[in-house]
Give the backbone structure.
Amino acid sequence: MTTRRGFLKTATIASAGLAMSGVRLNAASYKQIIGANEKVNLACVGIGFRGNEIIKEFAKTGLANVVALCDVDMGAKHTQEVMAMFPDVPRFRDFRQMFDKMGNKIDAVCAAIPDFAHYPVVIHAIKEGKHIYVEKPMCRTFLEGELMIQAAKKNPKIVTQMGNQGHSEGNYFQFKAWKEAGIIKDVTAVTAHMNSSRRWHDWDSRIDRYPAEEPMPAGIDWDTWNMANQYHTYNDRYHRGNWRCWYDLGMGALGDWGAHILDTIHQFLELGLPYEVNPQWLREHNDYFYPMSSTLLFRFAARKNMPALDITWYDGLDNIPTVPEGYGRVAVDPNIPTVAGGKLQPQKLNPGKEIYGKDLTFKGGSHGSTLEIIPDEKAKELASKLPEVPKSPSNHFANFLLSCQGKEKTRSPFEIAGPLSQVFCLGVLAQRLNTKIEFDPVTKTVTNNPFANAFLTGLPPRSGWEEYYKI
């Protein structure tokens, strides 16, 4: 366990430097825009579970050639399907070796790996001049998000995309059109919720140490799995998706689902960063993995001609928020994709949100689900006044590849996805420390708690990974 005194002593990357001048990134060579009729040569880092799904989605577009496969557990059962799909494609366990041997054959990289592992792969790709698609959330620490945003800004020829795929579907275009037409306006409160079961819900929250080391299955490059993070010895409760449960490794329910529920609200209401995050209720809080239930209040200041706005986040099976009058029935949301082999069924409420404006209230789901005006009587009254919503010209995967070809611009580039992910980092910080965070969005510092402020940067990278964090 990291103690307060020990953390402050070892967190030597100055958190005051978050409003820094930038990362020294010098791409060895920028790729020229790929020819209009050529496919994008794609290297895939992480090929099991979610990686399996997104590789198939990229293949469906007809716009990509898969030229390299990389996974620290290459050959395990969960990687074999993708390996069989591309039997002649070179395979690697270490992404650094992949770049060393295949760099001149790669145009773009997709990364579907644990949250804590995103940063090194993204930074390495950008340094090599490769376009990068990374799963959500972009980062595990606030500093990582800041450096990734700056890296993309300093290398504008590099195409970036975070994998919140609903940002290329119906809700994105509807929210944009309704906001521009003044249908969505004067929003002062949002309720967001994800109340389905999580992996850690049957764990013992009386934990007082990390799990003991277990025998490691053959063939895993566990050292590379740990990346720049402080080393954890092998235990099955870290591997194969279990990493999401731990503060050290993943971003919990908020980081996992917030990017699918709050993405359009954050972008089109121009929320930026909150000035306060307050954990209002955490059930079975501990210092290692996420609470069984969480209620978090995010407070955002007034922006331009928009009023101050509060977002209240609910997760946990027993933490279902009250919905407004006229909400209507709860049915399975068809826009939520398959998760671990099956669709999530609503407990009492679908993953989603309610948006409260001065004059109108909206009911929304997750991913690409479009908004409804509630109650029905109000929706019928306004039906003829609603603007036409354009169709998406491409899904999220095609949008990335077409952007690599110079034909489109990505809809969730780091300049948009980065601040959204940093909001989740602040929420997780409030969860982890079980304390209110007062935050200055200009200086990007926690103003009421030096310990929390140090956590914006996290512990220094372990030996051999320092170059990725050079400022």
In short: Residues 12-33 have pLDDT under 50 and may be disordered. The CA atoms of residues 438 and 448 lie 6 Å apart. The longest helix spans residues 414-433. The two ends are 28 Å apart (CA to CA).
